[in-house]
Amino acid sequence: MEYLKEKDKIYLVAPSFGCTTSPYKERLDASIIKLKELGYDIIEGKNIYKSKGLVASNTPRSRAKEIMDAYKSDAKAIISVGGGELMVEILEHINFNVIKDNPKWFVGFSDNTNLTYTITTMLDQKTIYGSNAPSYFDLSYSALDTLNILKGEKKFTGYRKWQYEEYDVENPLASYRFDRKSVVESFHFDEEEGYLIGGCLDCLTGIAGTKFDHTKEYIEKHKNEGVIFFFEACDLNSISVIRSLVNLKYTGWFDNVKAFVIGRNLNFYDESFGISIKDAYLHVLSPFNKPILFNAPFGHLKPSMPIICGSLANIKYKNNNIKIEYKN
User: Fold this and answer.
1) Where does residue 263 rank: exposed (0-12), middle (13-18), buried (19+ CB within 10 A)?
2) Which of 64, 85, 107, 137 is the most buried (most CB within 10 A)?
3) Helix pair angle (277-285, 238-251), 10° resolution
4) CB within 8 A of 116, min separation 6: which ones?
5) What is the pTM of this model?
6) Spatial distance between the Cα atoms of 229 and 117, rounded to a whole number of angstroms
């Protein structure tokens, strides 16, 4: 896949939610203006400002067609305008052979795991688990690093500050206010290298065990270098995290895992039944006796470090932070 250059085309799609409500619509409008100012030619998919489907921009077929149109286009990158709830419905309408024959960068997070993960594990194509299109009005942190990946940057360092909630709900374009210190925790993790795969745990459990699950084949293909899983979650509480991870364990995903990197769940402070989110992850993953990084600076809480799904990466833990260098 080619990296972005000035005047290249970026295709915006809505495979899950469309941007019809505040603050997403205002932020998408401003982000399109910003991307054009940077010299990119923006192609607006027909669903990006719609809400015609069942909690989605349009019907599953229409959303899948928009993806197919984007892959058949001459755009260099495809960026989703939002996450959502039911992107999994489009998978049966996706022609993965078209994607295989027309490789492009696909960018998105949360519900977009349904494509970032399947494209990587089915086709061995890299994708970016990174900022959705409405984030680029503020070219700092997550959005800036996502663009830097698209332009070919290979080295990234985790962010030192983060925020738990939106502070200025009256102003959709307000600057972020990162006021909490980021402390990445290591459980026998010093430096690891392997192929990164993963995404939003809520979505991965919907893929596991289906015809779209090619995880074990992907791991076998890259067994010499090994695989590092990265996870975060949206709606899951600590008990749901345990159930989801156990499901993936039973499906055989972790049989040959090299390490785990855990980001920030949206329910960061949940303690259902007295069990914290950290304890939930450690309860299932620690018995594999593999290195674990917890509270890495990516996920549903801003800012979120973009991750190249399907890239061979060297990951270092130092000074309570994370450094990632992509090798390919």
Assistant:
1) buried
2) 107
3) 20
4) 106, 108, 109, 127, 128, 129, 199, 309
5) 0.97
6) 11
Max Cα-Cα span within the chain: 53
The CA angle 66-108-3, to the nearest 5 degrees, is: 90
Rounded CA-CA distance 96/123 in Å is 8
Q: Residue 80: in which H helix or E strand, if any?
A: strand 77-80
CA distance 107 to 130: 6
pLDDT value of position 167: 63
- Size of the chain in residues: 328
Write down the pLDDT at residue 267: 95
Q: Which two tokens stand for residue 87?
A: 């992107």
Q: How far is CA 196 from CA 52, 189, 204, in A?
A: 35, 15, 14
Find residue 260's DSSP bridge partners: 229, 292
Query: What is the per-residue pLDDT for 169?
Result: 66
Residue 324: both structure tokens together: 């990632």
3-state secondary structure 270-310: CCHHHCCHHHHHHHHHHHHCCCEEECCCCECCCCCCCEEEC
Other CB atoms closer than 10 Å to residue 319's CB: what's the count? Answer: 9
C-alpha 144: how far from chain center:
15
Rounded-to-integer distance, Cα 325 and Cα 328, Å: 9
Query: 222: how many CB neighbours lie within 10 A of its CB?
Result: 18
As a whole number of Å, the end-to-end CA separation of the chain is: 11
Peptide bond into 60 cis (omega under 30): no
Q: Which residues of the chain have pLDDT under 70?
A: 167-169
What totals of helices (H) and strands (E) does the chain contain, helices first? 9, 16
Q: What pLDDT score does 177 carry?
A: 84
Place of tokens 């984030």: 135
